[in-house]
Structures are given as structure tokens and as C-alpha cells.
Amino acid sequence: MHRIRLAELDHGFTKTSLATAAISIYSSLSQAEGAWRRAVEQCACFVFQTFEWNAAWRETVGRTEAISEHVVHVTGADGRTLMLLPLAIRQTRHLRVLEFLGGSLTDYNAPLIDVAFARAVTTEEFERLWRAVISLLPKIDAIWLVRMPKTIDGTPNPLTGLARARHTDDAHAAALPASFKEFTAARSTQFFAQIRRHRRRLEKHGAVNVSFPSAHDERLEVLRVLAEQKSNWLRSNGHGNAFDRPDTRAFYERLTKCQPQAGRILVACLRVGDQITATIWGAIFGRRYYLLLPSYARDGRTIPPGGS
């Protein structure tokens, strides 16, 4: 790993806000871990950009894939992270493709980026920075950066302003009020009456309990049931089933047993009697909750939540 001043790489940087910035490229996650963890503390990012998420993917699903790691680290004159980009080069049959680490199991791809830097850097400056990044990477044939939000918790994502970037998909989020009292005040009495009716129907089949297990074995059991329920739904609807792959299951098991830096993996289940009838696997990171994997039973042994 070498640290290079951008102005030495391209004299055009001397007239920009990046005149004193430097760039390093790490060839493995282990080399980048220290800088990566400091970036999580200092920068805007999603849970998908934590070191734990990417290490779990690389050591499970990514272990069998033909990729090389290239973690790009841009720092200011004081050594503070301006941007960290978790990139990889995938060798396909005919092409070397630059993409994000994390593969298809990562919902949002983005840099870890300093808020002040993201707001101050111009489109022209970032284009120049991107060209510098590409010049330092091994030779590539294509760039495939997908699922990039325009903002990272309100911070601009300059990657989406690169030439030839285009909008292809939408994602959705809901802003929650400050308290549950405010949440309930915004809902109708009919909303809660319907929930009570659903609960009474479930109680005909046994005691109803919602739990958030903390012990590893209990969390892994919820994940096992989730994978079974999700697999049944995917097969019955004619979709491919990622949980058929042992490496996919290993990825979720690993994250279930650890906690991301500055966040946590949340596992919950709804039990009716002694049976798990619904599950949720998600994450809490910063001020955001990620609902990632919900599931419920559809095999006839019990009724789904809200069923009759």
C-alpha cells in the first residue's frame, strides 16, 4: 500500500480543494481494517459499508468468487478520511469488471464519505478524483457500480454525479416520529382495532409472544426458521432461492453472531404457541432501522400474522 499525494499524480489538483489530499489503495480488507473502522466513526455511511458486513461477505459468498479487493482511501492533509471506497475487480470469462464489494447481498452501495467533503467537492473535482482512482487500479474493461443512493443519510453521494451514471431503481424509507405516542396519534382507531382482531385470531392457536433473542443459539434458530420460510415462499412463487447456497446461509449466520461497529443486527420472531410463525432479520445503524429479511409461515401448520 502506497500513499500518493493527488497533486503529485495530477498537477491539476493543485488548483482544487484536493490540493493537499492523498490517496492509498489497500489490496485486502485486513490491510484496510484500521482506516476502515476510523472511517465508520467519522463518515456518513450505511450499515452495508461497515467493516463487519463486507468481511462477512468476503469470507463466505465472496470466498468462491473471482475477485480482487481494492479499498480506496482518500485522506486530507491531517490524515482524516475524506472518502473510503470498498471496491473489487471481478474477473469474468472475458472482462475485468470494477464493482463494489458486497455483491448482491448489499442493498445500498456507497462510499464512506466525510460530510463536509461531500458537500464541498464539485462535480469537476470529483470527476478528476475518479480518474485518479482508475489510473491507480489494475487494468479494467468495464465499470459496474449499481444500487447507489443519491444521498447517504442526507449527505450527497458524488458517485451518482459521475458521467454516464443514470437512475434505474427506487428505494423507499419512512421517517419515524420521535416517540411511540406520536406514532399512535397519527394512526386511526380502526388501525389498532384491526391489529387487535388479528391478535385474537392468532390466540385461538396458542399464546402469542414477540421476542428479540440475544443468545447466539436462539438467534441462529430464528434465522434457520426464517431461511426455511423464505425458501418456501420463493419456491412457491417461482423465484430463485439464495438460501439454497451454503455460503449465503453462512453470511447471515456470521452477521447474526456478531454486531457491526456502531450498530447491531436485530433478530425478532413472533411465536404462536411453541411455533415460530413469523420472523424479522434487520439492522440498526446510526438513526436508521433496516428491515432486510421478513418471513412468515405459509405451510398450513399455522396461520400467518393477520390470517384467519
Structure, explained:
- The protein folds into 2 domains: 3-161, Aminopeptidase (3-Layer(aba) Sandwich), CATH 3.40.630; 180-296, Aminopeptidase (3-Layer(aba) Sandwich).
- The chain is 32% helix and 24% strand.
- It is built from 9 helices and 13 strands.
- Strands 1, 2, 3, 4, 5, 6 and 7 form a 7-stranded mixed beta sheet that branches. It has a 4-stranded antiparallel beta sheet with strand order 10-11-12-13. The chain has a two-stranded antiparallel ribbon with strand order 8-9.
- A hairpin with a 2-residue loop joins strand 8 and strand 9 (155-156).
- The protein is elongated and about 75 Å long.
- The termini are far apart.
- 29% of the residues are buried.
- The mean pLDDT is 94.
Summarize the structure.
The protein has helices spanning 6-9, 29-42, 51-58, 115-120, 123-136, 180-185, 189-203, 216-236, 246-257; strands at 3-5, 22-26, 67-75, 81-91, 96-100, 112-113, 142-143, 151-152, 155-156, 208-211, 263-272, 275-285, 288-296. With 308 residues, the protein is an alpha+beta fold.
What are the salient characteristics of this protein?
seven-stranded mixed sheet; Aminopeptidase; alpha+beta; 308 residues; single chain; 9 helices
